[in-house]
Amino acid sequence: MTPRDDLHDRDLLRRIVARDRHALERLYRAYQPRLLQFLSRLCSQRDALDEAINDTFWTVWRKAEEFRGASRVSTWILGIAWRHALKALRRNGDIAVERLADTGASECQTADTLLNDERDQWLAQGMATLPLEQRATLELAYFVGHSCQEIADIMGCPINTVKARMFQARLKLRNLLPKLEGIENATALRGHQP
């Protein structure tokens, strides 16, 4: 996100404070896909995701005047979404990490694409084993592009907690991913035996 994008988002928030529904709609359209992508890595229930996203924008509508500008608008919105997602997950009892998108390979994919898909599948399996807070920390850092301070703001925790979660998650993945690769390769070999 560029500073220009943040300025645009801040302008939309000012308009939302003035009860401009079109500004809320524009902000929703800009952020809904990003929030869905982030939250779908944390939860497998589409209705819980939609509930969390709708609750997020209801909160933005009601509390836009409380945004103080200490962070980017995207950080503020992701923080709201994170808290609503946690509530939805607890309500629905779902801490699964299945992706909503179908990751099946099409017949037209190249070998490079298949290798990337296989790597992504291993990574998704590894991420699924992480505790929710560690998984979300990695998602926010590596897939959404937030700094440690922004992640701390989003998750409502000290920056040292974010750093510790990142360290622990990377360590777990470093130890687990080679094992998952071995399991995948063994399964593939068994599938090719007569």
Could you explain the architecture of this structure?
By secondary structure, this protein is mostly helical. The protein has two domains: 1-96, Rna Polymerase Sigma Factor, Chain: A; 99-194, Winged helix-like DNA-binding domain superfamily/Winged helix DNA-binding domain (Arc Repressor Mutant, subunit A, Orthogonal Bundle), CATH 1.10.10.10. Helices cover 75% and strands 0% of the residues. It contains eight helices and no strands. Helix 6 (132-144) packs across helix 8 (159-192). 29% of the residues are buried.
Number of continuous helical runs? 8
- What Rg, in angstroms, do the CA atoms define? 19 Å
Termini Cα gap: 52 Å
CATH topology of the largest domain: Rna Polymerase Sigma Factor, Chain: A
Shape: globular
β-sheet strand percentage: under 5%
CATH superfamily of the largest domain: RNA polymerase sigma factor, region 2, helix turn helix motif
Number of strands: 0
Give a brief description:
The chain has 194 residues and is an all-alpha fold. The protein is built from 8 helices and no strands. It has helices at residues 3-17, 21-40, 46-63, 73-92, 111-128, 132-144, 148-155, 159-192.
Topology summary:
Elements: H1 3-17, H2 21-40, H3 46-63, H4 73-92, H5 111-128, H6 132-144, H7 148-155, H8 159-192
Features:
194 residues, mainly alpha, Rna Polymerase Sigma Factor, Chain: A, Arc Repressor Mutant, subunit A, 2 domains
